[in-house]
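#struct-help
A.M.: can someone run this one for me? Single chain, 338 residues.
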Amino acid sequence: MSEDFCVHLGKKIAVVVPAFNEETQICVVIDTMPACVDKIVIINDRSTDSTESVVKSKMRSKNNRVKLLNHETNQGVGAAIATGYAWCRDNDFDLVAVMAGDAQMNPNDLTNLLTPVALDYVDYSKGNRLHSIESIKKIPKVRLTGNIILSFLTKLVSGYWNIADSQTGYTVINKKALQKIDWDKMYKRYGQPNDLLVTLNIHGMRVVDIPIDPVYGVGEKSGIKIPTVMWTIGTLLIRLFFRRMKVKYIIQGFHPLVLFYMLGFLSIILGSLSGIRVLTIWLSQGFMPEVSLLLTIFMLLIAFNSFFFGMLFDYQENRQVDLKYTDLPEQTEAVNNN
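D.P.: on it. Structure tokens below:
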């Protein structure tokens, strides 16, 4: 896809760049930004280094594409992205991408993310660094493990069963979705991608994964503490799951899959209590109560089957908005021939 493809379509494009202490990397992001981008919206999330002055220097020297927004207090990467999204919404941009301020996102991938959104095939495209063995090998093992776990849980929570790499921040959103979402209510820190996916699903927005190349070892400094992030996002996912069930399948319109999930949770609670009783009697008295053991097995089987049918119905219900990259050959070919 050529860089001027979106210009041919008459699309106004912005890239939101959240930045916190990125004085060594932010110039790389600005200098390598594709020419099709009309505005680079950098949100300085109360950096304690010289990020702000570096960006202002760039703005004075030659780059009139750059817009700098400053947070008075550090609010988190999710809040920085929301600030950028709100500014782009208010300034009537058609397509808005997000790229990190640490130069960990390959600018050559941007046009591939823009393509399906620019052609109105989807409302939101997101990068997927887990699309091949070669790409996976580039990701640090600890971060890869956490990403895989959170990606699986996000499938269940968000209703987008075809997505992977849920924690990537390399995305493109269209004007319709940009205007639909209340950005003041979005999660403010590292769980923002998960929160956004759930919100997009509630609003019936079409989403697709796009293969991208992971970028590491370019001077970036990660501030992520894996155990803290896993716990924080894990608890967030639980809240998001029940929020989506309530809004989408009860308030917006009732669907019986809610009953399957309710039965599943009830069965696993009863089965666990019964299992604890069996284990306690076995350890204290040396034998297993057969009735309680059978009840435990029975309840856990009901839970398994209930969750299975709940997920199956959820998958079927979201087929129109949960798209695969392999569903895009005609659109990709049209762009390449442009």
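A.M.: thanks! The beta strands are 13-19, 39-44, 66-70, 95-98, 124-128, 171-174, 207-211, 322-323.
D.P.: also worth noting: The CA atoms of residues 7 and 16 lie 18 Å apart.
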